[in-house]
Amino acid sequence: MQEEIISTYFSEHHKQRRVADLEQRLIADGTPAPEASIAAAKGFDAYFSKQMRSTGVKAGIFLAVALLCLVRIITLTNREEGSFMQVSLSLALVAFALVRGLIWGIQLFALKEEISTFKDLRRL
Fold first, then answer.
1. DSSP 14
2. Which residue, of 18, 28, 41, 113, is most buried by count of CB atoms within 10 Å of its CB?
3. What is the pLDDT of residues 58-79, one digit of tens each?
4. Torsion angle (degrees, nearest 10) of CA 97, 101, 102, 107
5. Regions of the chain short of the pLDDT cut 50
6. Distance between CA atoms of 102 and 98, rounded to whole angstroms?
7. CA-to-CA distance for 115 and 50, rounded, in angstroms?
8. H-type helices in the chain, by residue range?
9. Are residues 119 and 23 in contact, defined by beta-carbon separation less than 8 angstroms?
10. pLDDT at res. 19
């Protein structure tokens, strides 16, 4: 029954996922509190590893693209070969890729902090 509640929790849309919310759902279902804390932490650890594989890779790719475009801008301006359009397009790509990569990275960091804080508070 715990796995069903955990999978249902992660299939629903949430503005922010909280380990304590999942723990409360497990307790409401009749799971003892210490066992619910452990199950919620394990469920979030599995979710974090899944997110790290998908969102983490995307964030890394976007940050690498931002770095490559930044190098392109530097080489174009140093050699004075690039047109205004090329430099502008590269700057736009750098801004977009950098912001998107940072947003995904911050979201992953926030999720990891949520898990770590929960484990520290529950002494797991």
1. -
2. 41
3. 999 999 999 998 888 888 887 7
4. 150
5. none
6. 6
7. 14
8. 2-11, 19-28, 33-51, 57-79, 84-122
9. no
10. 92
